[in-house]
């Protein structure tokens, strides 16, 4: 549908009393069989999907506001609104609604919802009293008018009738005329009554009345009436502030008079709502909902009008980046962009997307790169706020811009490095700006919001960029404040002496704590990149210098960094910690803390408790071997005794494992001798062995034939593995050729297979019958003796070796 008259946006009111944009489409009013009545249908202009299907109910109160809005409620706490692009379209649909309900299209509301208490007394209201009868607008009747206005606020029907009466007789402008008379006469009583009247009219919550009251010729008189609160001894001077103190600055001249008028109106109405009117009570919460909607739609209109004026925004960014622009002008431009972005937060997601894409196309990020590096604190603060809006909207857009920079500029002026330097150089003693910037950096380096496409991965590319170009800037203050030196004696011992001088300045300590918080985040989420950086820079050692700080919060940050590393249970990290003896500063801090029961004490003990519970064996062995004597006196927790117990258990297991596989022929006990000499007389066992021998011989013969048919034996000059089977033992002889096969391969000659005739060694005994072969005298031989549970198992093992090995094997059977 191309008719722009019926082009609308659909809004719903959320729980926070803010309007949510449900989409843009075209509205029509047709009969819907399923709903059995005339209904409002809105179909999306993008894909034709149904955005709204609402039956025009005879009992629903529809309200027309600002000539282009239709608002109604379909259920409790479910308000809907249609915002038309053109007034003609709004009038057309409004007439259709009034036709279905049998109402006069000249009215701005079809009917008012009636609660139960109103229904009970509805019949008591005379039918002839269509409108509330207003007293004449005279000075002497102001008290009567004030009583009438305040009395109707509790009744929805009477509020509606009073609003119609005020509109039909042009009563508002007459009241404001009386205000000027009372002020000239200094009639305080009349001014107090006018305050009550104007406040009550605002609480009628009618858009049609707001259009009159907030027009250019009336709004300052409305503000004037609200200055004379009877509860105040002296009236407020709101008009003086709005006309003299508050100055409207046009950083770039606005040629559109309608836009300028809308900006003035919105600012003044916002001032009335936020400053002049008292905070509504629980019973008055909904009295000003229409005023909130009035401001909201005004802001949407302002942003849309500015966004559509390409010349205006282009000029703003051109002057913002122009070196010839003076500082005061640049300050005004940055503040304008900041306010512009703040206004955009009232937009719904679709409109906000278009808004920020427009700013990106106009060069907002290069402009920020310039202004964030300026010395003006106000400019930098405003630029930080703008940057935060952009990061919150689309971190990927900022990352994409940043990764293109190294091709065009030096590392020192990269946008992220500018942000990091601003964080480091924050002059605020509480580091408020640094905290804000640290949060933005964490958002940018968070892998959770990085997109992955088919051809490339944003996470890999950006993190590689960040660690290459930016990480050294982030860690520079940390490395500078944890410098270490080596003394001659320390160098002889091979140890590093840590300089115990730590930053005592509170602001510096806070900054280092922020940096450590960001690094801890990296350890949790970046794995490979941060691991490489920590290893290359010996970063953990430098961080643990801060365990000596007099600021406990900084020592805890350093400990938290180490705790996150150990929590990964990564053996690369564990070996790095062991090699560097990095538990020493932690244990020294625990011992120096003494018997004080504080957060540092608990955090250190939790670290060791984690190691014990998770049974990280390498760290447990290192701690017990090197520090147990110092930790043994600590008995108020069982952590360190538990570590010692884990350590002893592991030693016992290792000892048992070694004893299980270690066999010494000279120290065999009687049981082993009996087992060794067992003839295995079981007939079934002998038949099984015979079948195994036959299978083995056949398999080996086929294997060797296949091997000879497919391989050239001259490539293997010597066969490095020789096997001998006797009883339940396998003897494996490994010659030097196994280690030096390459040398043998180079001679290009085929090696002769050693003779298979067995020669009994001098140390052999008739009972053992362990056989070997004669090998060349230059050959170095290693012997492995395997004892199997039966002879059949020996053949199975040999068969596996033959078919799985990639080298030629020669078994020699006894």
From TrEMBL:
Keywords: Coiled coil. The keyword Methyltransferase does not apply. InterPro entries: ARM-like (IPR011989), ARM-type_fold (IPR016024), EVH1_PP4R3 (IPR055236), P4R3-like_central_dom (IPR006887), PH-like_dom_sf (IPR011993), PP4R3-like (IPR051137). Residues 672-694 are annotated as: Disordered. Residues 144-649 form the Serine/threonine-protein phosphatase 4 regulatory subunit 3-like central domain. One of its GO terms (cellular component) is nucleoplasm. GO terms for molecular function: protein phosphatase activator activity. GO terms for biological process: DNA damage response; regulation of double-strand break repair. Residues 644-671 form a coiled coil. Gene3D superfamilies: Leucine-rich Repeat Variant, Pleckstrin-homology domain (PH domain)/Phosphotyrosine-binding domain (PTB). Residues 5-101 form the PP4R3 EVH1-like domain. It holds the Pfam family PP4R3. Residues 672-686 have a biased composition (Acidic residues). Belongs to the SMEK family. Regulatory subunit of serine/threonine-protein phosphatase 4. This is Serine/threonine-protein phosphatase 4 regulatory subunit 3. It comes from Oryzias latipes.
């Amino acid at each position: 549908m191309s008719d722009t008259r019926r082009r609308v946006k659909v809004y719903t009111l959320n729980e926070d009393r803010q309007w949510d944009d449900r989409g843009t489409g075209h509205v029509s009013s047709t009969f819907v069989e399923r709903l059995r009545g005339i209904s409002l249908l809105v179909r999306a202009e993008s894909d034709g999907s149904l955005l709204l299907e609402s039956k025009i109910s005879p009992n629903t109160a529809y309200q027309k506001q600002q000539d282009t809005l239709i608002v109604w409620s379909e259920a409790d706490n479910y308000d809907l609104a249609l915002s038309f692009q053109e007034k003609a379209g709004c009038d057309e649909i409004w007439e259709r609604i009034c036709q279905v309900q049998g109402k006069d299209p000249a009215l701005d509301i079809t009917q008012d919802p009636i609660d139960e208490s109103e229904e009970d007394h509805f019949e008591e209201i005379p039918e002839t009293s269509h409108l509330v009868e207003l007293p004449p607008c005279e000075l002497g009747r102001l008290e009567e008018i004030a009583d009438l206005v305040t009395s109707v606020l509790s009744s929805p029907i009477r509020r509606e009738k009073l609003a119609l009466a005020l509109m039909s007789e042009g009563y508002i402008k007459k009241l404001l005329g009386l205000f000027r008379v009372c002020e000239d006469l200094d009639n305080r009583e009349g001014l107090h009554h006018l305050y009550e009247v104007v406040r009550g009219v605002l609480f009628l919550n009618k858009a049609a009345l707001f259009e009159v009251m907030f027009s250019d010729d009336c709004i300052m008189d409305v503000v004037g009436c609200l200055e004379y609160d009877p509860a105040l001894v002296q009236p407020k001077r709101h008009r003086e502030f709005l006309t003299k103190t508050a100055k409207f600055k046009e950083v770039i001249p606005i040629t559109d008079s309608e836009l300028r008028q809308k900006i003035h109106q919105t600012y003044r109405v916002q001032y009335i709502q936020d400053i002049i009117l008292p905070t509504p009570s629980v019973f008055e919460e909904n009295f000003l909902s229409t005023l909130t909607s009035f401001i909201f739609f005004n802001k949407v209109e302002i942003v849309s009008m500015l966004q559509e004026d390409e010349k205006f925004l282009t000029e703003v960014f051109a002057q913002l980046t122009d070196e010839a622009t003076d500082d005061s002008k640049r300050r005004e431009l940055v503040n304008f962009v900041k306010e512009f972005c703040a206004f955009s937060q009232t937009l719904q997601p679709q409109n906000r997307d278009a808004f920020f894409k427009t700013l990106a196309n106009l060069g907002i990020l290069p402009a920020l790169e310039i202004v964030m590096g300026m010395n003006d604190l106000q400019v930098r603060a405003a630029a930080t706020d703008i940057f935060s809006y952009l990061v919150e909207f689309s971190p990927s857009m900022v990352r994409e811009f940043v990764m293109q920079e190294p091709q065009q500029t030096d590392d020192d002026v990269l946008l992220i490095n500018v942000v990091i330097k601003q964080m480091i150089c924050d002059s605020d003693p509480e580091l408020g700006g640094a905290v804000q910037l640290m949060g933005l950096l964490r958002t940018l380096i968070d892998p959770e919001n990085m997109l992955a496409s088919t051809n490339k991965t944003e996470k890999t590319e950006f993190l590689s960029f960040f660690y290459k170009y930016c990480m050294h800037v982030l860690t520079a203050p940390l490395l500078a404040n944890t410098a270490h030196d080596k003394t001659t004696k320390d160098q002889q011992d091979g140890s590093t002496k840590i300089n115990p001088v730590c930053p005592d300045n509170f602001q510096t300590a806070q900054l280092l704590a922020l940096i450590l918080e960001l690094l801890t985040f990296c350890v949790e989420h970046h794995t490979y990149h941060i691991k490489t950086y920590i290893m290359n820079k010996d970063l953990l050692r430098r961080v643990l210098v801060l365990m000596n700080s007099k600021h406990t919060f900084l020592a805890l940050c350093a400990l938290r960094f180490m705790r996150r590393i150990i929590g990964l249970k990564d053996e690369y990290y564990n070996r790095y910690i062991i090699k560097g003896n990095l538990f020493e500063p932690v244990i020294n801090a625990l011992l120096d803390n003494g018997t004080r029961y504080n957060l540092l004490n608990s955090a250190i003990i939790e670290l060791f408790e984690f190691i014990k519970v998770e049974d990280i064996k390498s760290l447990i062995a290192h701690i017990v071997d090197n520090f147990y004597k110092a930790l043994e006196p600590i008995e108020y927790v069982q952590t360190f005794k538990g570590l010692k117990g884990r350590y002893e258990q592991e030693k016992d297991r290792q000892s048992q494992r070694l004893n299980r596989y270690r066999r010494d022929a000279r120290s065999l006990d009687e049981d082993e001798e009996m087992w060794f000499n067992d003839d295995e007389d079981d007939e079934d066992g002998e038949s099984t062995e015979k079948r195994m021998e036959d299978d083995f011989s056949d398999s080996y013969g086929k294997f060797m034939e296949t091997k000879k048919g497919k391989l050239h034996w001259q490539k293997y000059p010597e066969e490095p593995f020789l096997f001998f089977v006797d009883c339940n033992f396998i003897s494996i002889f490994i010659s030097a050729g196994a280690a030096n096969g390459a040398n043998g391969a180079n001679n290009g000659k085929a090696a002769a297979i050693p003779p298979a005739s067995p020669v009994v060694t001098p140390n052999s005994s008739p009972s053992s019958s362990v056989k070997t072969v004669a090998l060349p005298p230059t050959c170095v031989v290693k012997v492995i003796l395997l004892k199997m549970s039966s002879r059949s198992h020996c053949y199975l093992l040999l068969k596996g070796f033959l078919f799985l090995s990639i080298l030629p094997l020669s078994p020699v059977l006894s």
